[in-house]
UniProtKB/TrEMBL annotation:
Region (Disordered): 537-584
Positions of the Thioredoxin domain: 36-179
Superkingdom field: Eukaryota
Name of the protein this chain belongs to: Sulfhydryl oxidase
Species whose genome carries this gene: Canis lupus familiaris
Record-linked InterPro entries: ERV/ALR_sulphydryl_oxid_sf, ERV/ALR_sulphydryl_oxidase, QSOX_FAD-bd_dom, QSOX_FAD-bd_sf, QSOX_Trx1, Sulfhydryl_oxidase, Thioredoxin-like_sf, Thioredoxin_domain
Role: Catalyzes the oxidation of sulfhydryl groups in peptide and protein thiols to disulfides with the reduction of oxygen to hydrogen peroxide.
Length: 658
């Protein structure tokens, strides 16, 4: 964690080295704001995280065991059962789309809970950030197996299936159980291996008052093991499996096809079980319905069932034609304090990617790092919709537009005169750090296909716009799509009528008009500070900001857009000027608050100091002191060593000259 924070500080210092963008406004308007990005980057990895994430799984409603930072270690450590835990993020579109499969899997293997349990932990929850770092979770969703009776802390074993379909995951769960040794196998789990055909003869004379079901199957079948686990919580029945039995022996028992089940009754009668289809569900259902076969009274640990307070959703009125500072800064907050912080240390290509990304941010983004999340234009009708991914797209579009309209901002960074510089930096960031692995792979495929064809800054702006629309088209109708904000080609006709044309009855884009629209929409003149942190600070102790009435309750996203637009925005003329990011970085380096009064400067220091100490324990501080003392002693020893050596050299030289 310290290494990642250090990497962030190094990247920030590199970003601040280049000259400030011309025409930056004064810093007086930001005096009462949280500290600028350079100061905060060093502590970003340890700073407070995003709150209010929406859970995809609910304790008591789903068969999934819902874990959190307070329960995951206790649940998986020295457990009598194995665990399969999905570490996910509720903003991740792939995680949202996969949630029904995970719920279905948990329901499907509910009867296996005494042997192996299906759980989930939301890494987007603020309280879970640290534990997800401890388990070394970089991408979502990540699947980890934890063996039974594991005493020492472990980050678990990675899921190694060819895909994540329900049947594949279920079979890998069986393989994982079979990888346990006899000493650490869950005590409730019966042996899953096959018995030799010779043992079947002894079972035919069964007289212990229980049913014995013998499943004959081939070597590649999982049906027998699945049925054994399905019947795990039931008593008065034993299930065995036999592989590759002799054909003559099978014929003697009347078995003509595989898989088949031969049933021995408690009274000694026996025969081939007659079911409609040779499927796991048919076998299990038939065996569970036999007379006197009933569920055991198995004592399972209580599922973690932390009381969940319903989240109060505050709807903030916004204008879709505007770009909101709050969205960009909230996205930057999550990017640096949560996503980046999952990497314990950075070196080599990863560190260089971070340096380059922060350099681009510092020079052309014009935004600051805050310590909370407040979506405005990126709000969703439910907390798990839009949010972070929406803000990333807005941030990336802003970077390409600003690089095209203010190319001088990148002078001295090594990115000047390279129209692909910003796109390639975004590409490397997504590939290296973006939590949704499937999303990053899709973006990389698009980049490999055509990013090299970009030859001008205007082409870079249009390239990102085209790919964004491709992603919208691919995700239209996906479970991650917000029904109140459907994924449609953008900009829509109401936002940019000139962007849309018809040629021979078919829709066509006027790319020249699209380019003009993008430059206006993501330009600094369209950036609105409503709901930003400095706007809230400006109203402390005074009248509430405009739109405060809407913040006290939920305003339906179904309101007509015109009505929202009429009430949402403060006229830009009354907004205080905002310094760009590079000026904030310079202020952070030099400490020059020339236009800020002493009282205002003191308030900023009061804000900055407790933040910089956040995340560093007394042990961390003690180690710093020890290292400082040790390095001082080492320097003193080296000084005396060379001092004594130089005196000896002088004496020897003097004798030779005599």
């Amino acid at each position: 964690m310290a290494a990642a924070a250090g990497a962030a500080a190094t990247a920030a210092a590199a970003a601040a080295a280049a000259p400030r963008s011309p025409g930056a406004p004064t810093a007086a308007a930001r005096a009462r704001r949280l500290p600028p990005l350079l100061v905060l980057l060093a502590a970003a990895a340890a700073g407070p995280g995003a709150g209010g994430a929406a859970r995809l799984y609910r304790a008591g409603e789903d068969a999934v065991w819902v874990l959190d930072s307070g329960s995951v270690r206790g649940a998986t450590a020295n457990s009598s059962a194995a665990w399969l835990v999905q570490f996910y993020s509720s903003w991740c579109g792939h995680c949202i789309g996969y949630a029904p499969t995970w719920r279905a899997l948990a329901r499907d293997v509910r009867d296996w809970a005494a042997a192996i349990r299906v759980a989930a932990l939301d890494c987007a929850e603020e309280e879970n950030h640290e534990v997800c770092r401890a388990y070394d979770i970089h991408f979502y969703p990540s699947f980890r197996y934890f063996k039974a009776f594991t005493k020492d802390f472990t980050t678990g074993e990675n899921f190694k299936g060819p895909d994540r379909e329900l049947q594949t995951v279920r079979r890998t769960m069986i393989d994982f159980l079979q990888n346990h040794t006899d000493t650490d196998r869950p005590p409730a789990c019966p042996p899953l291996g096959p018995i030799p055909p010779s043992d079947v003869l002894s079972l035919l004379d069964n007289r212990d008052g229980r049913y014995v079901a013998i499943l004959f199957e081939n070597n590649s079948s999982y049906v027998g093991r699945e049925v054994i686990l399905d019947l795990l919580p039931y008593e008065n029945i034993v299930v065995k499996r036999v592989l590759d039995a002799d054909e003559a022996f099978l014929e003697k028992l009347g078995v003509s096809s595989l898989p088949s089940c031969y049933l021995i009754y408690p009274n000694g009668t026996r025969g081939l079980m007659n079911i409609g289809k040779p499927l796991r569900s048919f076998f299990s259902s038939y065996l569970k319905s036999l007379p006197d076969v009933r569920k055991k009274l198995i004592s399972l640990p209580e599922k973690p069932n932390k009381e969940e307070n319903p989240e109060v959703v505050i709807w903030r009125e916004f204008d879709r034609s505007k770009l909101y500072t709050a969205d960009l800064e909230s996205g930057l907050h999550y990017l640096l304090r949560v996503e980046l912080a999952t990497h314990r240390s950075l070196a080599g290509a990863e560190l260089q990617t971070l340096k380059d990304f922060v350099t681009v941010l510092a020079k052309i983004s014009g935004i600051f790092l805050i310590n909370r999340i407040k979506w405005v234009g990126c709000q969703g009708s439910r907390p798990e919709f839009r949010g972070y991914t929406c803000s990333l797209w807005k941030l990336f579009h802003t970077l390409t537009v600003q690089a095209g309209t203010h190319p001088e901002a990148l002078d001295g960074t090594g990115f000047e005169d390279d129209p692909q510089a910003v796109l390639q930096t975004i590409r490397r960031y997504i590939h290296t750090f973006f939590g949704c692995k499937e999303c990053s792979e899709h973006f990389e495929e698009m980049a490999k296909e055509s990013m090299d064809s970009v030859k001008t800054s205007d082409q870079a702006i249009l390239w990102l716009w085209k790919k964004h629309n491709l992603v919208n088209n691919r995700l239209a109708g996906h479970l991650s799509e917000d029904p109140k904000f459907p994924k449609v080609p953008w900009p829509s006709p109401d936002l940019c009528p000139a962007c849309h044309e018809e040629i021979k009855g078919l829709h066509s884009w006027n790319e020249g008009q699209v380019l003009l629209f993008l430059k206006q929409h993501y330009g600094s003149d369209n950036l609105v500070d409503t709901y930003a942190a400095d706007q809230e600070d400006a109203h402390e102790g005074g009248a509430p900001p405009e739109g405060g009435e809407q913040e006290r309750g939920l305003v339906s996203p179904e309101k007509p857009q015109g009505e929202q637009r009429a009430k949402s925005l403060r006229p830009p003329s009354v907004l205080p000027p905002r310094p760009d990011l590079s000026q904030g970085l310079q202020l952070g380096l030099d400490g020059e608050h020339q236009s800020v009064s002493r009282a205002e400067g003191h308030r900023e220091v009061e804000v900055a100091v407790p933040f910089l100490g956040m995340g560093f324990s007394s042990l961390d501080m003690s180690l710093c002191v020890v290292l400082y003392v040790a390095s001082s002693l080492f320097l003193m020893l080296m000084y005396f060593f060379f001092r004594v050596r130089s005196k000896r050299w002088k004496v020897r030289y003097h004798r030779l000259s005599v």
